[in-house]
Fold:
Amino acid sequence: MNKLLIAVIVGAGFAVAGGAVAADAAAGKEKSQTCAACHGPDGNTPMTPEFPKLAGQPADYLEKALRDYKKGARKNPMMMPMAQGLSKQDIKDLAAYYSSLKGDLKVKY
Amino acid sequence: MKFRSLAIAGLLAVLASVAAPLLAEGDPAAGKNKTSMCAGCHGIPGFRAAYPETYHVPKLGGQNPGYIVAALKAYKAGERSHPTMKAIASSLSEQDMADLAAYYADAGRK
Structure:
């Protein structure tokens, strides 16, 4: 009985911890409507030359960019308010989604 | 009359040469010669920046040229806080930025 209880509590603990850190690209796609308006529906065709392509960029870089916009370490009048509305989970999901897309971006020497 | 149109043409030529650096048309070939400071991080697949945070550096090949210029200007102006990028961007002229942007943007078309 006690062992079962412990197993349930430990299991629940993992489930909570897992949900807080795991990135979900499919969920990110659902959340990307607002982004698509400027960065393009494929993350590779931005509306103006000043907006970056996101498709295929490393996920941890995209996360950092969104975190920096959110906390004001990266100052941009367009992106700061966008990032304000994102949770840590949103940021992970969006970064995973855009990183999973194939576009023009490549490492060029 | 002829002198006048010549004078106007001359004036326009001077204006154009003054205005050109403001518009900073990028030259990919010139940009290639300016990438020595970029390649040590951005030219290595899977490279991670180690300071002040650890993450993969962004890919530049195929990126929008206007964005690359905007990013470099933002580093130079302190609107983006990465110490290494701020130091590098601060050493670049607007022409350097445009040339680098043209060089990296070119990769997407090949």
